[in-house]
Amino acid sequence: MQLSEFLLPELDLEMSYVRKHLERVPMDKMDFKPHEKSMPLGWLATFIAFSPSWGTAIITQDSFDVAPGGVPIQQTKVAESHQALLQMFDQNVDAVRSAVAAATNEQLGKSWSLLAAGNSIFTQTKYLLFRTYFLNHTVHHRAQLGMYLRMVGVAVPAVYNDSADESGGMFIDK
After folding, report:
1. What is the mean pLDDT of residues 61-72?
2. CA distance 80 to 98
């Protein structure tokens, strides 16, 4: 059996929950920060919408340099509308889903490296990095977004089970 057959259902499930959170981002509160050390809501939401592109890079490339030639890559601009935010997310999810569907066990077992100015920060198998650096990392930030939503008075979506605001989640037949 191909590893991609295990990854696709998990990807689909988690990305459906991420999208529910992004759909609720209040565009009039994009500057909200729960703490001075926290990132603004707008950047967090954009970061999450962009994150599936990491999964695509992990599967389709052998490395990624965050500072090629010593120059840091440009940061993605904060989405200025719900439409832009959701379009970014949907396009990135479509791309990562296609990459996963086409991935072989051999490809997922290859090494992938995160680089800075050509120097390796870390190297792991593509499978492990897809699960941790992309999926788990995105789920972590989705939970962070849920906290931001709660703090600005927006209902938090149900995920694996009910939230304080709604019933549902994966244990409920939809």
Report:
1. 94
2. 27
